[in-house]
Write a structure and sequence with these properties.
Layout lengths: L8 H30 L4 H6 L5 H11 L5 H13 L13 H35 L5 H15 L2 H15 L23 H8 L2 H37 L3 H8 L4 H19 L1 H19 L4 H10 L3 H29 L6
């Protein structure tokens, strides 16, 4: 019998997890700062163009603060992050947060849709393969998991564009909304939700048509990971004594799979949801670029090409905080499900 958790152990566990995120975030921000500075290219020269004189470039570097010692820039950057200031963009001269806050909702909508697709397909394939162990369906499910993860996500996106947009004409090739109709009134920043809140079915259809293809491509990319994890954990769970006892009592196989097998197999799957969220954000960068989706990922690519240090650092900081918060939430859920994790 498992020992009962001590009072307050969950609170202590949460505090420890929060404290452990501090050095992790510090290391990540340090790496981003260093990598941007050692990468080839000068932000001032990139902004002014190839024909700018050295004097003009040096003046621009001084305005940007790039002529200061690196350690001064570094501690100034960390100080701004600690106070919630992501800095000002070199290119636009306005706070980075003002540039990304509206794009962030577009990325969140894409990631949520993709995560739903990945979970539904992954669960269905994983359960179906595990229930037919050793058959061609089991091998096909395992092969599906390998194949979807092996495909380059940008290639998969281009193939879907050619098939569903160019050849069949079912879906638009790119963008988040049509230019022939006004977007829904911004309440949450999620076009699907805002269209429902506005009560406009036509806008909902437009938003979904633009969301389906990039969301499905991103979801398919990680659905194979879910499928393989669910299959593996289901096979282990179906060997358990309580599953054998349920079958001996004459419980229908469907209920054995869903109530006993799947329910307990999902516990370890929850553990890696935070990692999958990080993978979704990474895949969103390529997906948004492929489909011209106006999110943070495509904006990050543009800022990298222009060596916009504050914008890149701000976007990475927001991504890192998102991954950390989701990881902490997953850890808390796991601690509630299994009290042994708290020790």
């Amino acid at each position: 019998m498992a020992a009962r958790a001590k009072p307050g152990s969950l609170i202590n566990y949460i505090i420890v997890r929060l404290l452990l995120t501090v050095p992790m975030l510090f290391i990540l921000l340090t790496l981003v700062f260093i990598l941007l500075r050692v990468a080839p290219g000068d932000p001032a020269a990139a902004m002014l163009g190839a024909h700018a004189s050295i004097e003009v470039i040096e003046q621009m570097r001084e305005q940007m603060g790039l002529n200061r010692p690196l350690y001064v820039q570094y501690f100034a950057f960390l100080g701004d992050v600690l106070t919630g200031d992501l800095g000002k963009s070199f290119r636009f001269g306005i706070p980075v947060w003002d540039l990304i806050k509206h794009r962030l909702t577009a990325t969140i909508e894409l990631v949520l849709f993709a995560f739903t697709v990945a979970a539904l397909i992954g669960l269905a394939v994983g359960v179906f393969a595990a229930s037919r162990r050793g058959t061609v369906w089991d091998v096909s499910g395992d092969f599906y998991g390998i194949l979807t993860y092996a495909f380059p996500i940008f290639w998969l996106g281009i193939m879907c564009q050619m098939l569903f947009a160019v050849e069949l004409g079912w879906l638009p090739t790119s963008g988040r909304f049509s230019g022939f109709i006004d977007p829904p009134v911004m309440r949450t920043g999620l076009y699907v939700v805002d269209s429902l809140l506005e009560g406009r079915l036509d806008k909902l259809v437009v938003a979904l048509r633009h969301l389906i293809m990039p969301g499905a491509v991103l979801g398919l990319y990680i659905s194979g990971i879910f499928a393989r994890m669910v299959r593996t954990n289901m096979l282990q769970t179906l060997k358990s004594d309580y599953v054998l006892a349920a079958r001996a009592r004459g419980v229908r196989e469907r209920w054995v799979l869903l109530r006993h097998g799947l329910k307990n197999a999902l516990v370890p799957v929850v553990t890696v949801l935070g990692l999958q969220f990080a993978l979704l954000l990474g895949g969103a960068v390529l997906t948004e670029t492929t489909f011209s989706w106006p999110g943070v990922g495509s904006f990050l690519v543009d800022r990298l090409l222009e060596r916009d240090y504050p914008a890149v650092q701000g976007i990475v900081t927001v991504f890192a905080l998102g991954v950390i918060l989701v990881s902490i939430l997953i850890d808390i859920v796991n601690a509630l499900i299994d009290p042994r994790i708290r020790y």
